[in-house]
Design a protein that fits this description.
alpha+beta, Alpha-Beta Plaits, 2 domains, four-stranded antiparallel sheet
């Protein structure tokens, strides 16, 4: 089936999501998250886009941005390519990190802009990572108020939303449906599963498992599976293909 053509935004504003290939983790620690933010700052100067909001999760991230003179495809290619190059060097891995096709939706009016803004900031709350949007460090929620001039464009946000209404606006109940990835539910959430995998594998970084020898990898995967994690979740978090995991489990 041919891919659907990407919808263009008349306003130039898009809600964008990039996710790890096979839903694998793309941010293992704070250094990884800081690196992506630095990458966004760097290419904002080169590509001329404006960033209104962001949220960095475990295996994906959200952006609310406006294109200026460069096409969205080129912007995403620059950001993703730079981060993947750095990530692969850090974790001594090779190959793809992100799904081939990022997701995007046009944001054409102020009402939907605010809905997406709130939706992005509520991602950690929805995932059970924090109790409130203000508690999560790696989103733009607090930075919009405090000011993060090297990345965020505050002027547009606060031209349609008063600063003194900002906190209450994010607390309002709403039924807006924004673009997202469908996530499966697991007995252990990702944070718990990552701790378990690192403990069993005896490694500080989960990506290190990709460089394990055959016997070590087989032993480790079997032990992790015995702890109750599914093949899908192991594959998604470690970046090891489902086929390889199934193969070693049969040995």
């Amino acid at each position: 089936m041919p891919r659907q053509a990407r919808r263009k935004s008349n306003s130039g504003i898009y809600h964008i999501m990039l996710r790890g290939i096979n839903q694998q983790i793309i941010f293992e620690d704070d250094e990884d998250r800081e690196r992506l933010i630095e990458t966004l700052v760097k290419y904002r100067e080169i590509s001329g886009y404006k960033v209104y909001a962001y949220c960095l999760m475990g295996n994906h991230f959200h952006l609310l941005l406006k294109t200026e003179y460069e096409d969205l495809d080129l912007i995403v290619k620059r950001i993703a390519g730079s981060y993947v190059y750095w990530y692969n060097r850090k974790y001594r891995r090779s190959g793809h990190l992100f799904q081939d096709r990022y997701r995007s939706e046009p944001v054409e009016d102020e009402r939907y802009f605010l809905a997406v803004l709130r939706y992005i900031h509520h991602n950690p709350v929805k995932a059970g990572m924090t109790k409130g949007a203000a508690d999560y460090e790696y989103s733009s929620y607090g930075h919009l108020i405090k000011g993060k001039p090297e990345l965020l464009d505050q002027d547009y946000v606060f031209s349609i939303l008063e600063k003194d209404e900002y906190e209450e606006f994010h607390k309002e109940e709403n039924d807006n449906i924004c673009m997202d990835f469908e996530e499966k539910e697991y007995p252990l959430n990702d944070e718990e599963a990552i701790k378990l995998i690192k403990s069993v594998a005896k490694c500080e970084e989960i990506a290190q498992m990709q460089s394990f020898g055959r016997d070590q990898l087989a032993r480790t995967i079997k032990q992790i599976k015995d702890k109750g994690l599914s093949i899908r979740q192991i594959s998604r978090l470690t970046g090891i293909s489902k086929g390889i995991i199934e193969k070693v489990l049969k040995q």
